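A quick word before the example. In earlier lectures we treated sequence and structure as two separate objects. From today on, think of them as two lines of the same record. Here is Cullin-associated NEDD8-dissociated protein 1 written that way.
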Amino acid sequence: LSQMTSSDKDFRFMATNDLMSELQKDNIKLDDDSERKVVKMLLKLLEDKNGEVQNLAVKCLGPLVNKVKEYQVETIVDALCSNMVSDKEQLRDISSIGLKTVISELPLGSSALVANVCKRITGRLSSAIEKQEDVSVQLEALDIVADLLSRFGALLITFHSIILAALLPQLSSPRQAVRKRTIVALSHLLTSSNNYLYNKLLDHLLEGLCTQTAKNVIRTYIQCIASICRQAGHRFGEQIERVMPLIVQYSNEDDDELREYCLQAFESFVYRCPKEITPHINKIIEICLVYITYDPNYNYDDDMNDVSDGEDVMMEVEEDGEEDAEDEYSDDDDMSWKVRRAAAKCLEAVVSSRRELLPELYKVVSPALISRFKEREENVKSDIFHAYIALLRQTRPATGVPLDPDAMEDDDGPTSLLQQQVPLIVKAVHRQMKEKSIKTRQDCFSLLKELVLVLPGALSNHIPALIPGIQYSLGDKNSSSNMKIDTLAFVHTLLITHQPEAFHAHMAVLAPPIIAAVGDPFYKITAEALLVLQQLVQVIRPHDKPCYFDFATLSGEIYRCTLMRLRTADIDQEVKERAIACMGQILAHFGDTLSDELHVCLPIFLDRLRNEITRLTTVKALTCIASSPLRVDLNQIMEEAIPILGSFLRKNQRALKLCSLPLLDTLVRNYSTTLHADLLDKVTTELPALLNETDLHIAQLTLNLLTTIAKLHSVALTRVSDNILPEILVLVKSPLLQGVALNSMLEFFQALVQADIPGLGYRELLSMLLFPVSQSVLHKQAYHSLAKCAAALTITWHQEAQAVVEQFLKDVQNPQSDAQHIFALLVIGEIGRHVDLSGITSLKHTILNSFSSHSEEVKSAASYTLGNIAVGNLPEYLPFILKEIEAQPKRQYLLLHSLKEIITCQSASPSGVSHLQNFVPSIWMLLYRHCECTEEGTRNVVAECLGKLTLIDPATLLPRLQESLKSSSALMRTTTVTAVKFTISDQPQQIDAMLKQCMGNFLVALEDPDLNVRRVALVAFNSAAHNKPMLIRDLLDSVLPHLYTETKIKKELIREVEMGPFKHTVDDGLDLRKAAFECMYTLLDSCLDRLDVFKFLNHVENGLRDHYDIKMLTYLMTARLAQLCPTAVLQRLERLVEPLKSTCTMKVKANSVKQEYEKQDELKRSALRAVAALLTIPDADKNPSLSEFVTQIKSTPELQPLFEIIQKDCTGSSVNEINVMDQS
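And the structure line, produced from the sequence above:
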């Protein structure tokens, strides 16, 4: 401190520097006295004669503010403010920088301090703004106020009106800079101000627009309106009707800047007030289309189009060097390009926020944009391209749900409209692809890339037109490295999305530049080129089609340029990997013509296998070669490669195991003659460890490999019973084993029993499988798996089947235990499914007797078995089952399950369907008799059977279902609607087209007087929205009102039940509302573009105040909505925050049970998740009610830690995953 007063400026400089570094340390503590001294000193240094010392002193202020007591901060601020108004220019500058530093360093947490400081600054500066003659002071003051408002707007509420009064007159100031900064400050002010001020300002602006005459003032007002809309758009909606006519009127005036501002205002309206602007959209489009071609000072030559493809014109221009002249003429005051640019941006806004207008946009906007690709001003051209790219992006089907083919192929569906315009696009782009400007060419390629992603194959007939452009941009003279990378990326997309034949004629021109790019010195270009080459190889000689195209000349060149890259060891990792992958493709497609070269490149593959960094890529490339139909000769590396691959199975890298197992499988399958048992031992010793339930995918691949070895090389499995079989028998008992892994297990047992390995015949294997059952009690799933394996063995030995089944029947007749009983039944069922067991006469009665067992498990096993043996011989067993269903009302449920088993099993294969066909009428009649059964369980089984039968013969059965909807019995209607739910699956079925036509009739059930019918109708609707949105998309207009009615709480459904001394309220409508909200949630994902978000939000708001389950659902919805349509949610924030707040502040009654507390915690957690999601909306934190609530959360001890964890989870990519409801 003493040195700071020294007369030598260097001493002062160093001392300040030391102070700075001291202040930046975290642990520095100043006592009051030293604080005072430091502050005083710094303020003095701010007036230092030496500029550098001043600068440092300003920098010190930042860290200082956080370290000293509050009143010291106020001293600093006061001093700075009075300096602001001083006469010395330099002092003013320095102190304004100082104030900015202080403002940006003020801690967001301690609001008392901030409020004090802000009040001081604001008071001083507002007066400075109002009465200053000196413009620079005004500018600085405005800047600082804008900073303050954007950070602490909400704390300055008391000052808002003073600030407003100071700012308004500045809008009509003669200096443009003042006006601009005033606008910024005002728009920050309005984000946090109250409604009274908001309206006051807007009234001022609108009045001004009506009465003002000065052009520059009008411009400023319009800019201000646009800026307010951008910053505080959620409130702007109400004003649209007042503002629009004025701005439309001004946009017709002859003043370019004014027009530009009007168009910018439109753009912000479109983005910020999607709902209120809807009636004006067409007007806006019309104005934009006029101005996008607005170019008064330049005459585009219309006869240019007659010259063949514009190529001669290109020549002329290049020869005469006219290009430069063209740009020079343009007077600097030609502002018309700004208008065109604003128009293009505004169109882009319309396109990207209005999916529902697509067909319209394609008819009107698309041709206009295409015709403007010839724009002369590069920046404008770029914006026009971007608007068109936005249009293409909107056309791409959303969220991977393929839209129904019908809607897309209408004559005026967006896709077909686009299809008709492809030639126009190509023609317009073709001319631009030869432009000198790199930016333009990059835009061309990104446009074409979007085009082929939306319409794969669109350019098949236009490839000759594109090739010159591609060559031009890959040439060295006229492109940057980024340009080359973009071009290559486009070629890659082009090759993927088109048929190989389209390119064959052009290979001679297309391939050389790509081959040249592989040799490019810049690694990024090389990597991109190798990716293209990989695709190119598959196009030159596809495996699945005969090839009439002479590829021999190219294959050599392609091979050589890739080999160059494959050999070099010191290149970039990405290039290494892609060179390996590319060589893999080359050998897989041209291996036969390159057989002399194999001794060169296969050893390189071995090296790459041994290298830890490249081994995974190499395994993938080798798989590609080994599975090629050309049977490339791999003998020279087999001996070394197989042990290496075996060792990979021990490694801890899962991806490596997942790739090595299929490669080994392929090698054994395609090259079994070159392998011998000793070599395979290196692999089989590693396998037991992989047969483990912890990773079923790897276990499944291991079983596949074992199956292949058992079929082709059973010698290698002689020692299988020592180490591999014990592991397999452990795995069979795993409750997790099912699906694909279980099927692999069955295939393995079948291959093993046929391999004739000594000591592993049919009987030995069977007894191994039966042994665990008698030993201990297993998991339910284990019995199923073991039974399936036993049956798999038996099916391969038909002659044994009868004897084995009779053996098991004895177990069924007098079982030792339930477990044995169940197992015996299951084995009989599994065998009976594939072998006709009708020879055993006592069979069906023995199984029926098990129906009367006291154990539920045995009963269900018996019904499963009965269904399965019926599959083995339908004519014998099906009539018997149908008869029993009639005769045995008590066993109905179980017998119906048997029937369901039959239907499910038969509909899986075409042959099964044809067998079942004759029985369909009799089954249908029978089911109909049981539709009105009072037991819900039975009804559901009946419905499932009906649904699955309908899938077999939709043409006759679907109309019958429609008929039964008219039945007078509510139970009948419930069953019918549930049956419809079972006809909707996530795979495409032939019934879909018919369902689409009659879905409307089934959804009439949403208006049914009966509660249950309405509930199942909602469930069916949800299933349709989830699995096949196209069934319901067009019905939403009529369905949504009914859906929304179901979300309301209905008083008449709430009743009081007396339980002894207590009264208990039961709400019968709860399940209905829950189903309705679930549907709403599903619609968000599948049909967002058909919803009116604001109506939707009304019902979400009500749900936020409903019962526990429904609150949970609506919290998820709120979070999802915040992601999908942030602008709409912003407009409604106040109304969403209220109920969230009440949940978070709710207290549980003191004497509640533990569940109540847990429920309450879960609710709070979900509510906080929703709040965190709302905070991710841009500008949401400026909303007064939300920010106040967040402050409240942060100051509540029990909520604060929770909220912090949730916010950590929310940032990053996981926002999407958290809010996705599990819909299984």
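Notice the following. Confidence is low (pLDDT under 50) at residues 301-332, 398-411, 1212-1224. We will return to this example when we discuss secondary structure assignment.
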